[in-house]
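Practice problem: Transcriptional regulator, LysR family
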Amino acid sequence: MLRVGMECHPCQRWLTRIATPYLTQWPDVDFDVRTAFRFDGVEALLGYEIDLLITPDPVETPELLFTPVFDYELVLMVHEAHPLASRAYVEPKDLLDEELITVPVTLERLDIYTRFLVPAHCRPRQHRTAETIDLMLQLVCAGRGVTVLPDWLLHEDASGLLIRALRLGDSGIRKSINLGVRHDEERTSYIDGFLKLAQEMGR
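Answer key — structure tokens:
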């Protein structure tokens, strides 16, 4: 059995790309997914609760091996009639009067805070959470706030919606989806098969 854990909501959406071709290639391997986004994935991997971790935040530890499989950029999504919509990029101070919608995790796990707002000593006027990406996008479409999501979700989930994507800072915030496994287990056939398929589909 391949037990997969995920540490972010977009990771779940990314996994749907891989699951069907993987299950087709490995029909004899049971596939179990842990979707509790608030759990400590590294601890679960080290504790043998899962066999593979999908995360945007790899850690350096001798017991684990992390492989980047898909690069993306975090972008601010706003309604196309929003005052910021005509901008090529936004600065932290531009969010001072905004209602920011994020997934329900601690601020320490949100790049919009740790890599953008906090270093500039800025906070949005209001911060609210939404359980699903679809709800976040619908709230943005209704003019109820702004959100930050991977750019590829704009093409897959927001096609046809009245939403604009803006770069965070003039150089942007770039991330990667990484697959983490315990050292030496990357040689296990069905784990190696998952890693190779993910790398092929991430190109």
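Discussion: The mean pLDDT is 92. Students who identified this feature from the tokens alone can consider the problem solved.
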